[in-house]
Amino acid sequence: MCVLFHDKLYVLHVFFCSPSSLSAERKITTSNALKLKLFNETKIFGLRAEGDRVYITEEGVTKVPASVNFTLRIFGIHFSNRTELAFTGSKSVCDKVTKIVKITNRNVLSDTVLEIIVSLPLAEEIESYYICVKKERENAEAGIWEHQGDSAWLKMEPVGRILPMWLQICIICTLLILSGLFSGLNLGLMALDRTELQVIENCGTETEKKYARVISPLRKRGNYLLCSLLLGNVLVNSSLTILLDDLTSGIIAIVGSTISIVIFGEIIPQAICSRHGLAIGAKTVYVTKLFMLATFPLSYPISKILDCVLGEEIGNVYDRERLMEFIRVTKDYNKLENEEVNIISGALELKKKTVADVMTQIDDVFMIPYDAVLDFETMSEIMKQGYSRIPVYDGDRNNVVALLNIKDLAFVDPEDNSPLKTVCEFYNHPINYVFEDETLDVMLNEFKKGRSHMAFVRHVNNEGDGDPFYEIIGVVTLEDVIEEILQSEIIDETDVLTDNRKKQRRKETQIKQDFSDFAKLGSGEQGTNIISPQLALATYQFLSTSVEPFRNIYLSETVLKRLMTQNIFFKSKQNKDGYNAPCSTLYQAGKPADYFALILEGRCRVTVCKENLVFETGPFSYFGIPAITVNTSAGWLFLSFYL
After folding, report:
1. Are residue 603 and residue 496 in the same domain, yes or no?
2. What ranges in 220-264 are assigned the alpha helix state H?
3. Mean pLDDT lowest among 3-17, 47-61, 568-582
4. What percent of the residues of the chain are helix, what percent strand, and what percent coil, each to the nearest 5?
5. What distances in angstroms separate CA 256 from CA 51, 209, 248, 264, one per listed residue?
6. How confident is the model at residue 495, as a pLDDT?
7. Is 221 in the same domain as 152?
8. Which sign, positive or negative, has the C-alpha torsion 420, 425, 426, 429?
């Protein structure tokens, strides 16, 4: 505040504005109150610097960047276009006005405000700069400069850069690389847990095994590595911010440091290390060890505290469900086939499934009674079913007393009508029982012991008023367990159903021969001419495979079976006249015959040619093919069966 009283100007208070405060009040002591005797004398009462990296200290000293142009507003009285300013390093006199300060622009805003653009360089002999004004009084000596005072608010100190610009730029680039390295390693190395590294060491490629062995010692000290990387990253980013702020200031420094740290120090390194963290971590292991050593005094104690609080790191561990889902999700990337995924899933689910989930219900099991006779009909039924192991029950189907293996019938002749009981007692196969809640892994171990590949599933029936008792509810076999591992049905050439639980029939079932029809041969009008079912079966197979007119391409199996059930079997006995008797002659020279003959048992003498050559033939010799066929260019033509 200025007051003009009786041609005298008194300065009571002066107000200043700075970047940190738009207004600040500074009091002028009584000794500094100037009483101007002349009206036109120029005097400076304060100043304000404007520009980047310009600030005012707590003592009121203005700090400006060295050798950088900035705007300086000077407050005083009697400013005009003739007012000349200069700067000196002396605190009291202006006898040595420096010439290294260049004022590039000057603008008189009013008689109390003068604005200039100036640059204050660093000089060894100058610590602070003070303002000098050339006197304009008529009686004053020309060229005399007047010092404006050494008060803190009239003093300016230039501040130089921390380092030379070229060195500063090199350090900034290096710090950016280190910032990106620490940020990337923090993601890449910490994402590789100890379990994954151990897996890579055991089953990775040779290069991956080499990288994993290098990283594994560092990764075992997870918290120590984490603290070292984070401390190094914070140290580098802080240094980078300081250097960027010294290189520039204001919005440029904020935007520049943000973009450089986020893009080059975070986004790009983490994107690269998330995919190639193993290789980058192995190739920069010495840099990581160096910073672990450098930050040891601070990072190691913090890591020990984390170890005590959080416990030891054990890595990612997958349970059965997560492991199966992990395999299913990554099967396309691992080039796993669906069958391979199913087998792995089935093996992992083996402990969760019980025999009740895979067994065949007892009502669907083919069983034979204990008192059965192993005649042709019984053995034909056994062969028709196609099972290798058949349970044997006594009275009730829940009362299983024996187990019949199909190989036990290899030396049993159906004509002997052997009792089934005798065969079962002779071989005496063990019978295994399991409860319905037994898991499949236990059953697999039992089957591998070799005692039996079939077990009967039972449970405790406590319904009703009586005592609880064991009840057989189904059968489980080794094939059932293997099918659960493979997650698919094993279908052999004798299976009729593709799923014994869903009762799904096989679409393309191999045609099984029904041998029970051959047991009915000879039950017609000529009941005495009966052959054994075994011989009838052999005759059928011989005709359908070895005699051309009776093959499947000419005659269906159904028609051939029906033919064999007719009265076509004859016996011919040799009488006292020998082979020359009429009743024992099948064909005679010179007499036509319209029938086909097949020798089933015994021997036959054939006399041919004029020389009366005699031959003997035995069973399954046949005659009369031309009588039932016509040989055409298209092949055989079957005529009739009439014999």
Report:
1. no
2. 222-247, 251-259
3. 3-17
4. 40, 25, 35
5. 18, 41, 9, 11
6. 60
7. no
8. positive
610 & 568 share domain: yes
Token pair of 249, please? 């200031």
Q: How many CB atoms lie within 10 A of CB 83?
A: 18
Statement: residue 240 has pLDDT above 90: no
Tokens of 9: 């100007």
Residues 509-513, mean pLDDT to the nearest whole number: 53
Say which amino acid occupies 429.
H
Q: What is the DSSP letter of 488?
A: S
Does 497 lie in the same domain as 360?
Answer: yes
Identify whether 346 is part of a domain. Answer: yes
The answer to whether residues 346 and 362 belong to one domain is no
Q: Mind spelling out the 3-state secondary structure of 498-536?
A: EECCCCEECCCCCCCCCHHHHHHCCCCCCCCCCCCHHHH
Residue among 609, 601, 605 nearest 617 (CA): 605
Contact 47, 75 (CB under 8 A): yes
| Best CA proximity match to 218, nearest among 291, 306, 308 | 291
Q: Is residue 588 part of a domain?
A: yes
- Residue 211 sits in the same domain as residue 126: no
Q: What is the mean pLDDT of the chain?
A: 79
Confidence of residue 138 (pLDDT cuts 50, 70, 90): low
Q: Per the domain annotation, does 517 fall within a domain?
A: no
Structural domain containing residue 404: 355-505
- Say which residues have a Cβ less than 8 Å from residue 288's Cβ, sequence separation at least 6: 185, 189, 218, 225, 228, 229, 281
Structure tokens at 638: 């079957």
N- to C-terminal Cα separation, the chain: 151
- Arithmetic mean of pLDDT, 119-141: 76
497 shares a domain with 596: no
Q: How confident is the model at residue 392 (pLDDT cuts 50, 70, 90)?
A: very high
In a domain, 642, yes or no: no
Task: Decide: helix, strand or coil at residue 108.
Answer: strand
* Average pLDDT over every residue of 74-89: 87
CA-derived radius of gyration, the chain: 57
What is 170-187 written as a DSSP string?
A: HHHHHHHHHHHHHHHHHH
C-alpha 104/C-alpha 259 separation (Å) is 34
- A 10 A CB-CB count for 636 gives 16
Query: What Å distances lie between residue 470 and 45, 76, 387, 399, CA to CA?
Result: 114, 116, 26, 10
Query: Cβ(236)–Cβ(175) under 8 Å?
Result: yes
What CA–CA distance (Å, rounded) separates 433 from 453? 12
Where residue 493 falls among pLDDT bands split at 50, 70, 90? low
CB atoms within 10 A of CB 536: 24
Using alpha carbons, select from 113, 112, 107, 20 the residue that is nearest to residue 63: 20
The confidence band for 601, taking pLDDT boundaries of 50, 70 and 90, is: confident
Task: Name which of 231, 223, 196 is nearest 211 in CA terms.
Answer: 196
Residues near 526 by beta carbon (within 8 Å), at least 6 away in sequence? 567, 569
Residue 433, classed as helix, strand or coil, is strand
Output the CA torsion 442→447→450→453 (10° steps): 150
Helix (H, G, I), strand (E, B) or coil at 489: coil
pLDDT of 518-536, one tens digit each?
A: 666 644 444 445 677 778 8
Distance, in Å, from the CA atom of 126 to the CA atom of 142, rounded to the nearest integer, reads: 26
pLDDT of residue 450: 83
Q: What is the arithmetic mean of pLDDT over 447-464?
A: 88
Sign of the dihedral through C-alpha 477, 479, 481, 483: negative
* CA–CA dist 488, 475 (Å, integer): 19
